[in-house]
Amino acid sequence: MIKRAFPLNKKLIVANWKMNPESLKEAKGIFDSLKKKNLQIKKTIPVICPPYLYESDLSMGYRGNKFKFGFQDIHFKSDDQSTGEISTEMAQNSKVEYVIIGHSERRQNGETNKTVSLKMKKVIDANLTAILCIGEEERDNQGNYLRFIEEQLVESLSTITNKKVSKLVIAYEPIWAIGKGKTSMDPSDLHRINIFIKKILVSIYSKKIAMNIPILYGGSVDADNAKEIIKEGHVDGLLVGRSSLNPHLFADIIKEVESV
Ligand code: PGA
Q1: Over the stretch 230-245, which tens digit does the pLDDT of each residue have?
Q2: What is the Å distance from ligand 1's center to 21 Cα?
Q3: Quick check: 28 and 56 in contact, CB under 8 A?
């Protein structure tokens, strides 16, 4: 049987806290109220990705296993001369199991597909699960955005061989749907892109392997659209930004997905 990053009957729900909140006290407050919800977690795997500074405090004091932990980025090298960076070894020696790679906000700051591909290899070689973010900035009628998505996928996955795919998750996040004032994408449109992404994955890997790679959606996910996105977009989970910073909203998203 082909190994998969997480079981087929589960949905991955990733909380990307980005550069929030401003203090450890607030970070603990968010996580504590999430824990107090006593959520029934059966069909989902919630992953909390706080800033590095708060991650160990949150995860080390946590005795449960409902919530998993992730980093929002990682360095592509292991050496003693990378000021300001965080290594895969540090992740391995913590409770972190997942790493978001190539988020659009990092790509906007200059991260290239080449760097993303090096990070992908580093993370998967370290036996951590890599969540590769891809997505176009805007749509056009000529289909250039499809070529853009294809290029991002092919180049970012250039270091990932068939054998390593068991630690791979793709997160499709169209930039035009991310952040304040934006709305999530139409689930039936998402379904079409999902099929398009699968086709590209089939061209890179064999069909059997490619069809097993989980695909998440991210961009203005909230408790009102989560269920529809999962059901009609046919995705394997969600990458949640703003709504993951509010424990009540994030708990509601988890509940919605649990009820699918
Ligand atoms: P959003 O962010 O949910 O706030 O749109 C998603 C993301 O950037 O991962």
Answers
A1: 999 999 999 999 999 9
A2: 15
A3: no
Per the structure block, which two tokens stand in for 91? Answer: 């992740």
Q: Which of 237, 232, 233 is nearest to 258 (CA)?
A: 237
Cβ pair 49, 70 in contact under 8 A: yes
Dihedral of CA 259/235/223/187: which sign?
negative
71 CA distance to ligand 1 middle (Å) = 15
Over residues 18-54, the pLDDT tens digits come to 999 999 999 999 999 999 999 999 999 999 999 999 9
Is residue 152's pLDDT more than 80? Answer: yes
Q: How far apart are CA 114 and CA 120, in angstroms?
A: 10
The label of the residue with tokens 């990053």 reads: 5
User: Are the beta carbons of 207 and 188 closer than 8 angstroms?
Assistant: no
**Residues across the chain:** 260
Q: Is the CB of 222 under 6 A from ligand 1?
A: no
Beta bridge partners of 133: 171
Report how far residue 188's alpha carbon sits from residue 48's, in angstroms, rounded to the nearest whole number: 28
Contact present, 71 and 36 (Cβ < 8 Å): no
Query: Please, are residues 9 and 43 in contact by the beta-carbon 8 Å criterion?
Result: yes
Nearest CA to ligand 1 atom 2: 241
Contacts by 78-81, CB closer than 8 A, 24 or more apart: 78/122
Q: What is the pLDDT of residue 55?
A: 97
